[in-house]
Amino acid sequence: MNTPLNQTLPTTRRGFLQLGLMGTATLALGSAVATLTGCSSPLEHNSEYKFLQSEDCEFFAALIPVVLHKSFPGELSNDTAMKLTLLALDDLIYTLQHHNRIQMRQLFDALSMPSVRIIAGASWASWKDMSHQQVDSFLISWRDSIIQPKRNGYVALSKLIGISW
Question: Per the confidence metrics, is the pTM higher than 0.70?
Answer without folding.
Answer: no
